[in-house]
Structure formats: C-alpha cells, structure tokens
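Hello again, I could really use a second opinion on something today. I've been puzzling over a protein and I'd love to understand its fold better. I'm sending you its amino acid sequence along with the backbone structure tokens. It would help a lot if you went through both lines with me. I've dropped the whole record in just underneath, so have a look.
***
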Amino acid sequence: MNEQGIDIIDLVLKGGPVMLLLLGLSIISLTIIVIKILQFYKLELNNIKKVYLALDNIEKNKLTNVKNLLSKVMHPAARIVIVTIDSQKLNEEDKENQISIEAEKELRNLEYLLKPLEVISNIAPLLGLLGTVIGMINAFSKLEEAGSRVDPAILAGGIWEALLTTAFGLIVAIPALAAFYWLDGRVDKAREDIRHLVIKTNILLKNK
C-alpha cells in the first residue's frame, strides 16, 4: 500500500495464482459485455416499430414494398418476417419448419457468448473462496512454523491477504451476473417480439 491509496498490482500479486485467474476472467467478462451491447445496439433491438410499420403495407397488398422495407431493418425479426412471407406457398408443416429454422438461427446469434458470461458469474465466487481457503492454509502453516515465536501480525496479515480473493471473486461475479440477466432479458424480449410478429404476419397475409 502506498501513500496515495491501495496498490492494485500489489494486491493482485498478494492474492496469488487464483487472483491472476480472476483478473483474467474479469477481462473476459468485460469483453463479452461490450461485444453484446454493441451487437444489440447494431441490431436495433429497442426499435421494433420499424417492423410493425413495414407490415402496414401487407394490408395494401404491397408485399414487395414490405420486403424492401424489412431488408433495411437490422432487427432479427425483420428477416424472420421476410421468411414468413416467402413461405406462404408452402404447406403448413414446411412453412413452420422454415420459420423455426430462421428463428433459431437468429436467436442463437443473440444468445452467443451469454453462456460463458453466466459461467464466469457462477465460478468467480467459488474461485475466490478457493483462493481464500488456500491463503488461510498458508497463513496457519506459517503460524505453525513460528512455534513459540508466534507473532499475531503473521496471522492477521495472512488472513487479510487470503480474503482478497473472496472480495475480488465477488467484484468479478456481481457485474457479470447483472449483465447476464440484463442481456438475457433482451434476448427474451426479442424472442417474444419475433413470435408476435410471425403470428401477426400470418393473420395479415390470410386476410389481405
């Protein structure tokens, strides 16, 4: 520790190999979060209105206009609606299969990297606890070696260094878990939007 505050590098080194592993997981977690936020922003997941506006042309019997408008929309629902329109001449089973295949492909793209983020949020606290247990073992080992020349500072120093990994494990896990639930919620919302739009498209095509 220096006069200006806590020396982060010194703390990481005191935490041992587990701390270095947690540091690596934190970097991976932050990278995943940034990638997913940029992906969702690019796909305009918050702007489903463009797809609904394009569907207004179905009632005017302008399917070409609908497809042209949807081709300019980045939201994954737009591509699934196009498939729904193109598959109208197929029988019901083939039509459902075509729509399901496209929907699964788009949803897999949205879910990409979410599982590793969830894994990091689950194992980071466990790794932190493991680091603490290892640190405590080392601290008591040094205490035993000291024998009758026991210095309370040895035990106290060993304990606080051991607890560093637990704290850092939680620091890594909490933002990762929060980000996972938020991103997963966005995927669930997109899934519901897709389902509603497919139903609406089928109804409009039957009634046009």
